[in-house]
């Protein structure tokens, strides 16, 4: 089944503020390299037969490339983002406008949430992270708007500040995750829901290997996540490695650059 992704070219990408432990403004980032790496990710999706739509990048919003944070779209309904840090604030309305202009039913959020950064939709439930960015009240707001059960999970390691830095869906029913990123209770929930999950180690998590995108057959994943790649192959997945090292300087990987549009309106 081809997927539909929304992406934003990193034309204004920089690391000029620090809102997560990966970001070091004094070290800077190479925008041209970031653009080339991002083009490689877009091409990887297109080669797999997925559809990529684009949103216009906005000057002065260097993190707008991280489209996953722009909204959560399930069943053709777009739940808007409301960013935790003011530096990214204007991205929320910019992404929401993209959906409004195209006729999607949208919900302007009352509560702080960073879209698919913290909400991962599986077939029957939506997994939702909290602890660093998205507020618990937003989990409830999303559940009411989308009509899908939302399962709250607590993130405890600031390096894994968004749910999508520590967990990804393999096929809508099973997941891969880094247990230490979660509270004890949330680890227990994950073990209960996904007894057959792929468990990643620290080395793979530290190169944002869990920030991957799977269509159920192919997994687009940071190339440096070598053990995780091997385990995915052992389980029969086709692994498509990508190099997004420049975007990782802002704390993002392939999934961060990708907002999935589920179900047309
Ligand atoms: N610099 C961005 C931030 O800290 C990175 C966002 C990464 N996106 C994601 N879906 N994890 O907000």
TrEMBL record:
<dbReference type="GO" id="GO:0019546">
    <property type="term" value="P:L-arginine deiminase pathway"/>
</dbReference>
<protein>
    <submittedName>
        <fullName>Amidinotransferase</fullName>
    </submittedName>
</protein>
<dbReference type="GO" id="GO:0016990">
    <property type="term" value="F:arginine deiminase activity"/>
</dbReference>
């Amino acid at each position: 089944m081809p997927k539909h992704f929304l992406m934003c070219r990193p034309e204004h990408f920089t690391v000029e503020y620090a809102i997560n432990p990966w970001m070091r403004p004094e070290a800077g980032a190479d925008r041209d390299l970031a653009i080339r790496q991002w083009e490689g990710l877009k091409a990887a999706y297109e080669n797999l037969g997925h559809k990529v739509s684009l949103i216009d990048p906005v000057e002065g919003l260097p993190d707008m490339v991280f489209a996953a944070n722009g909204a959560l779209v399930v069943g053709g309904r777009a739940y808007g983002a409301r960013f935790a840090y003011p530096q990214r604030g204007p991205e929320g309305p910019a992404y929401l406008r993209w959906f409004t202009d195209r006729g999607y039913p949208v919900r302007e959020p009352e509560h702080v949430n960073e879209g698919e950064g913290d909400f991962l939709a599986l077939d029957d439930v939506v997994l939702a992270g909290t602890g660093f960015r998205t507020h618990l009240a937003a989990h409830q707001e999303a559940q009411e708007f989308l009509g899908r059960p939302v399962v709250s999970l607590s993130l405890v390691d600031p390096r894994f500040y968004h749910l999508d830095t520590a967990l990804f869906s393999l096929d809508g029913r099973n997941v891969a995750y880094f247990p230490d990123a979660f509270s004890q209770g949330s680890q227990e929930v994950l073990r209960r829901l996904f007894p057959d999950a792929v468990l990643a180690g620290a080395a793979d998590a530290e190169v944002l290997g869990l920030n991957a995108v799977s269509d159920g057959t192919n997994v687009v994943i940071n190339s440096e996540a070598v053990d995780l790649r091997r385990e995915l192959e052992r389980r029969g997945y086709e692994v498509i490695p990508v190099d997004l090292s420049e975007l990782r300087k802002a704390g993002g990987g392939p999934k961060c650059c990708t907002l999935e549009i589920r179900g047309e309106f």
